[in-house]
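FORM 7B: Structural annotation worksheet

SECTION A. Query
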Amino acid sequence: MTDQINKGLLCCGISKTFSNHQALIKVDLSVNEGDILTILGPSGCGKTTLLRIIAGLELPDEGRLYLDDVELTKWPASKRPVNTVFQSYALFPHLDVFSNVAFGLQARKTPKLEIKNKVKAILALIRMDGLEKRFPHQLSGGQKQRVALARALVNEPRILLLDEPMSALDAHLRSQVQQELRAIQQKLGTTFILVTHDHNETKRLSNQLVVMNEGRIIQRGPTAEVFSKPENEFVAEFLGATNFFEAYKRADAYFDTDYGTMELDDKPSWKEGKFFIWPEKVVIQTQDVPETYQANNWFKGLVKDHVFNGQGQDVLLVKESSSNPQQIPILVKVEKDFKIEKDQKVGVHFPSKHLVALENRTTH
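SECTION B. Predicted structure
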């Protein structure tokens, strides 16, 4: 990567090795000002190492970092316009809320009146005003998280790094803090870089997404785009995809599969590969199985099971009269009041615009 961006962060060829483990391998990444970028990947893929290098807590073995075309590579953490919110909150137990939030400002010898005004403003923003005198042990998990966020934001960083910041919260609190975090970011315009394992958190918060594996960036782009069209099977599986199946290109540009003849809008160049479709994009017909099942992208299915998933139903079905005894069931997500029974025959449709091609094998 040679083109630099005028406003934002640029990582050029970042590599880092610990003993014999290559944590990062020539990572190139640009983050525009005001983005909320999420880094996803399995444990040990290098995402936290990358965050620590951006923060200045680690130095890269190779590569350079720029912010607005100013090189930060060897700047100490204390000089970088970057703050970090950790999973553990890292609040000082002997300091009250006000003193925890004011700590960074005091370390910079900010005038007392300015400290008072800034802390008051940020506590109001995170809805913690009136709790200035409480100590960390007197706060709930969500309140501790908000104090940690306020302490990071009060210093007005250009970039806020968040390393699994909500993993310790229960589901209700996590959802609440996610909403508050996005609202705060939209008000302040601060660039957020978030490391998480939570796919729903990624969808709710970020507008840009990076997927990493084994020290490399595998795919990056707008969050909705990466989720809708993963570039390979690793990314698709890591994002929670199911419903993979083999496909073979015919002379007429259609594809033969175990579920009949398929066509898709975004056609691959390969002859043999894999398709997948998200469970919520599969359409099932239960009233009269339509004659159109004989057309492309339709097949007759048999319901093997259906369970309530908390919001709707997960339906498992196979192709009726399949010649493959090892057939893996297709997962379909439907509304909770969708009427369906085990062993019911249904018409199944894979809309061509929602089929995604993966895994190039041949290109001719």
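SECTION C. Observations
Helices lie at 47-55, 97-107, 112-125, 141-153, 171-188, 199-205, 223-228, 233-238. The chain has two domains: 8-235, 243-358.

SECTION D. Sign-off
Analyst initials: ____
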